[in-house]
Design a protein that fits this description.
The structure is a single chain. The protein has one domain: Alpha/Beta hydrolase fold, catalytic domain (Rossmann fold). The protein is globular and about 55 Å long. The chain is of the alpha/beta class and 288 residues long. An 8-stranded mixed beta sheet has the order 1-2-4-3-5-6-7-8, with helices on both faces. The protein is built from 12 helices and 8 strands. Helix 1 packs across helix 12 and helix 4 crosses helix 5.
C-alpha cells in the first residue's frame, strides 16, 4: 500500500490515477480518499488525480497525541503530499474540512496552487459561532470515544449531515455509512479536538484572504445553510473567486450530485488553464 511520510514522521496513505496536470483532492471530516471516486473516475481521463487520507484516518497513521492535529498541520499535510510526489504546483480541491485545509494552503503557500476549489466550507466560521462550534466539536469527540466508532458512525450518517444524500441515492448513502464505520474513533476524536475545534474564523483572516490571488471556485449546496453566508463572505473578500450554489443539495455535494459537480469543476479548471478565468470576472464597461 503506497504511503508517504510527512515532515513530522506521520505516514499518509495515498492513491494516484491518470496523468497530466495534477489535481489533489482533500476529503471532508466524515469521508476519506474513497469519497472522491466519482471525481477520480471522471478527471483521471485528462488529469493526474491524487487522493489521500488525512492523519487519523486509516490506513494513514493515527497519532494518539492531541498536539499532532491542527489546522496548520492539515494544511502542511497537503504540502507533504505535493513534496513527496514531486509536484511543484497543483489544482487543490477540498470539501468541508478539506476545503478549509485547501484555503489555508493557498494562504500559506500560494506558489503551490494552480487553483483552489473550496466546497462546503463554513461550519463555525463566523466569529460569534466559534466558541459554541469549538465546544460542540469537543463534546462530539468525547461522545465518539464513549460510544465507539460503529455507533458514532450510525448517528452521523443518520443525521442532517447526510440527509440529502440518503434522499437522493440510498446506495451511495449506504457506502458512505459503511466506510464511515471503518474509521478510527481515536483519529476522529483527535481531529474534532485538534482541527475542527481550533480553526480560526474566516472573518479573522479577511486581510490575508484579500491578498490571495489564486483562481478560486467556491461551491455550496443551498440546503447546507451554515455554508451560505461564509461562501458569500469569501466571494466578496477573495480577489479572484466565484461562488456556485447547487440547488436542492446538502453538505456532501460531490456524492449527491457527482455529474453536476464534475461539470462545474471541469469548466472551472479548463478556464483556469486557458487563462480565461480572471478575464470572465464582471467589470464595469469603460465609457467615453
Amino acid at each position: 500500500m503506497p504511503h508517504l511520510t510527512t515532515d513530522d514522521g506521520v505516514k499518509l496513505y495515498y492513491e494516484e490515477t491518470g496523468s497530466g496536470i495534477p489535481i489533489v483532492f482533500v476529503h471532508e471530516f466524515a469521508g476519506d480518499y474513497r469519497a472522491w471516486e466519482p471525481q477520480v473516475r471522471y478527471f483521471s481521463r485528462r488529469y493526474r488525480c491524487i487522493t489521500y487520507n488525512a492523519r487519523g484516518y486509516p490506513p494513514s497513521d493515527v497519532p494518539k497525541e492531541a498536539n499532532r492535529y491542527s489546522q496548520d498541520r492539515a494544511r502542511d499535510d497537503i504540502r507533504a503530499v505535493l513534496d513527496a510526489l514531486k509536484i511543484d504546483k497543483a489544482h487543490i480541491v477540498g470539501l468541508s474540512m478539506g476545503g478549509f485545509a485547501a484555503l489555508h494552503l493557498g494562504l500559506r503557500h500560494p506558489q503551490l496552487v494552480r487553483s483552489l476549489v473550496v466546497a462546503g466550507v463554513g461550519y463555525g466560521a463566523k466569529p460569534e459561532q466559534q466558541a459554541e462550534h469549538s465546544a460542540s466539536s469537543k463534546r462530539d469527540a468525547d461522545h465518539a470515544e464513549a460510544i465507539g466508532m460503529a455507533a458514532f458512525a450510525r448517528n452521523l450518517a443518520g443525521s442532517r449531515y447526510a440527509q440529502c444524500l440518503r434522499a437522493k441515492d440510498e446506495s451511495a448513502w449506504l457506502r458512505f455509512a459503511e466506510r464511515l464505520a471503518e474509521h478510527s474513533v481515536i483519529g476522529m476524536a483527535m481531529t474534532l479536538r485538534g482541527v475542527l475545534a481550533t480553526r480560526p474564523s474566516l472573518w479573522h483572516l479577511a486581510d490575508r484572504l484579500r491578498g490571495l490571488d489564486r483562481p478560486t471556485l467556491l461551491v455550496a449546496g443551498d440546503e447546507d445553510t451554515p455554508c451560505l453566508e461564509p461562501g458569500l463572505f469569501l466571494k466578496a473578500t477573495l480577489p479572484d473567486a466565484a461562488f456556485c450554489v447547487m440547488p436542492r443539495t446538502g453538505h456532501l455535494i460531490n456524492l449527491e450530485e457527482p455529474s453536476l459537480f464534475n461539470t462545474i469543476l471541469f469548466s472551472f479548471l479548463v478556464a483556469v488553464e486557458h487563462g480565461r478565468w480572471s478575464a470572465w470576472k464582471g467589470r464595469a464597461l469603460d465609457r467615453a
